[in-house]
Amino acid sequence: MIRILGIDPGSRFTGFGVIESDGKKSVYITSGFIRVTGETWAERLGVIFEGITELVETHQPDEMSIEKVFMHRNADSALKLGQARGAAICAVITNEVPVHEYSPAEIKQSVVGKGNAGKEQVQHMVRVLLNLPGNPQEDAADALAAALCHGNTRHTVNYMKASMQAQLEKNADRT
């Protein structure tokens, strides 16, 4: 099993979730959110960086999964989201944790089964998949969904690599 830190970056709240996964089974470790405070935007980005750094030091993840930036309606919001992502990514990269990025639709598809799922559906499926007693807070649920998405994707990619390697070896034995 690998330990995965999922991040849902935000300018007011940055959600986090830590799971252990082998791709078939996932185990909940912790989740929550970092309340992003500060008088200037630079201070707020520092809060994200420090909060994620503390999570990495405390929970020692093997890999990190984060939502890609998407453009909805407001360019300013997308830019702030991108900067929040950057602060989170820098925090894990400085601790030599590999980063994996997924679109919101990929995350929802992996966890709920459809890429346009609503927040409530994501919360419900995260609760079910991780056997939680109740729905996690919205930002934490999104972060846990990112971690679950990576656990599932990682398992599938590794399975495909092993299958291809076995086929190559089988073909080499024939020659």
Give an account of the 3D structure:
- With 175 residues, this protein is an alpha/beta fold.
- It is built from 5 helices and 5 strands; from the N terminus they run E-E-E-H-E-H-E-H-H-H.
- Strands 3-2-1-4-5 form a 5-stranded mixed sheet, with helices on both faces.
- Strand 1 (2-8) and strand 2 form a beta hairpin.
- Helix 1 (41-59) runs parallel beside helix 2 and helix 3 (104-111) packs across helix 5.
- The longest helix is centred in the last third of the chain and has 37 residues, at 138-174.
- The relative contact order is 0.20.
N to C succession of SSEs: EEEHEHEHHH
Strands ordered across the widest β-sheet: 3-2-1-4-5
**What is the gyration radius calculated from CA atoms?**
17 Å
The coarse silhouette is: globular
Biggest pleated sheet:
5 strands, mixed
Query: Which structural class should the secondary elements be placed in?
Result: alpha/beta
Task: Determine the mean pLDDT.
Answer: 89
Proportion of beta-strand residues:
15-25%
How far is the N terminus from the C terminus? 37 Å
* Number of helices in the DSSP assignment: 5
- What multimeric state do the chains show? single chain
Helix fraction, binned, reads 40-55%
